[in-house]
Design a protein that fits this description.
By secondary structure, the protein is α/β, with parallel strands linked by helices. The strands form 3 sheets. Strands 2, 3, 4, 5, 6, 7, 8, 13 and 14 form a 9-stranded mixed β-sheet that branches. The N terminus is likely disordered.
Length: about 400
Amino acid sequence: MSDLRRNILRFPGKRTGIVKTSMQNFSPIKWSEYFSEEEGIQTTDGVFHVYGRGTDGPILLCLHGGGYSGLTWSLFAAEIVKLINCQVKAVDLRGHGKTTTSNDADLSLEVMANDVIEVANKLSEKTGQPIILMGHSMGGAIAVETARKLDSILGLCVIDVVEGTALDALSSMQSILRGRPSHFKSLPHAIQWCYKGGQTHNLEAARVSMPGQVLNTKTGKLAADECDNAGLSTVDESPSHSDDLVASSYTIAEVEEELEESEQSDKCTDCGKPPLPKSQKTNTFKDPNIIKLEDNGMIFKWRIDLSKTEKFWTGWFKGLSQKFLDIHAPKLLLLANIHGLDTALTVGQMQGKFQMRVLAKSGHAIHEDQPQKVAEVLSGYVVKQKLATPKPAFVHPDLPEC
């Protein structure tokens, strides 16, 4: 038996220097697999694009993190509507996704919160339903600021953003952003980077979320929009074996094997990420088809250049903990790592001012990594608080399943 074969048997979770025998699918998935509708909400400063699912119950208004789009909530939306009566509305924030405004570069906290207030008021007027705000990372900070100014708030859920750790992480954010590829050869290559680079640990989430984050440089259109209009193939563009990690500039590539779901959940190596999307694996993932592109191969680029938003970063998170504690509506905080809790929130949690759950074995985008678990936790909380009514599939987390 060869030494290589022995190493594979001894360490079945990884292979060294060879390509996977089964090909993963990095083709995009259309948003319509998860949302039932999309609409444009006209405000005083632009048109905000909103994905929706569900027809009754309170509006669960979901705000994405920096660089993402409303599509980051796709898998979560499909899960939560199975458990409670609610209307999921996932908005593309200013400068992101399909939303267009008079000044996409102004991402100050006050401006973005005012955007959300206008969108929330329009949705409430249209449906006659109150709002439950849910925000991830930057979107969590915007949700808190919005909740302070909006009267029709039933509840608030914030995902993986805490003032202390967020502010500490900002000093390294530019280097993290520089470590990301600036362009991608194709949309499947962008999805491949998103998954293998560690932005999400859920391949299905990467396939539906990444098209909302990149533009086609030739057409100027969002990749998700081109998918909708059949402008991109969803079958034949997956990177070939020659494009995989074995084509790396490294002499020995480390390639992960397909693992069972239970094994996948045990291997999170980047829990408690900083508050903006990043890849801790960027320096070890060197696909020349992505990192080194010829001019004629630069097809897809980021919808938003996050490095140019640095002047707003501190404003997003400064004072966040106290503002969160001062909100009187029922509050839920979901974290990937217990070590991310700062002093103010630790004291507030001990005083019962909010509920907290730590969903371990997740990266920064908890709702992408574990959409079903996030849906279970949130549905249990809103039902307990009598903010929404359960559906037959709902099982209270404090009670055993029959």
